[in-house]
Amino acid sequence: MLRSRFWHKLCFFLTMALWVGCTGDAIVSNKYSKFYASFSYNPVSAVSQLYSACNSMGEWVIIRAVNSQFVFSNLTGETVVNRTAVQNYSGYYMGLCGFIVGVPTIPELGATSPVITCYDLACSNCYHDRSVTKRLYLQSGGRAFCNTCQRTYDLNNLGQILQGDGGINLYRYRVYFGNNTLSINNR
What we know:
Layout: H1 2-29, E1 37-41, H2 48-55, E2 60-66, E3 69-74, E4 77-82, H3 85-90, E5 99-102, E6 117-120, H4 124-130, E7 136-139, E8 143-146, E9 152-154, E10 160-163, E11 172-173, E12 175-178, E13 181-186
Antiparallel strand pairs: 1-13, 2-3, 2-5, 3-4, 5-6, 6-11, 7-8, 8-9, 9-10, 12-13
């Protein structure tokens, strides 16, 4: 009888450990979008909006590809840069609609300081519900707004919905900033 209880308890704890381990992995793997993105820009310091977003907490920049140019815009203005032959040759893929890049004012759970973050410029709920790419617009206070579904997202807090009907957070991509280079890569 005692052995039976021991084995039942052991099996229960092992099952729980396995379940918690799998759940933890699932959370980590779902942190980033499944959509493909590939973009690199150097020198970041040449574009004031991009430099500010990569180096200042609470500052955000929108990055879009328009015709043969990259457009970097924030609440104070925009910079238009012609793509180089190297950028055209090496290729880039702007996710669904472009990117919103910045350093949040709130560190992620478990982190000691905020790190550079990248979201897709497309409203995740409009895309999820109707498979259409509706562009987001920056608002003050680290917010992004969708004119179509009227949702407001908090860029400083994992792209969560602040106002509007419930739904999913903004799509997020892997991003790296160092040596005056911004790289977004989600493969």
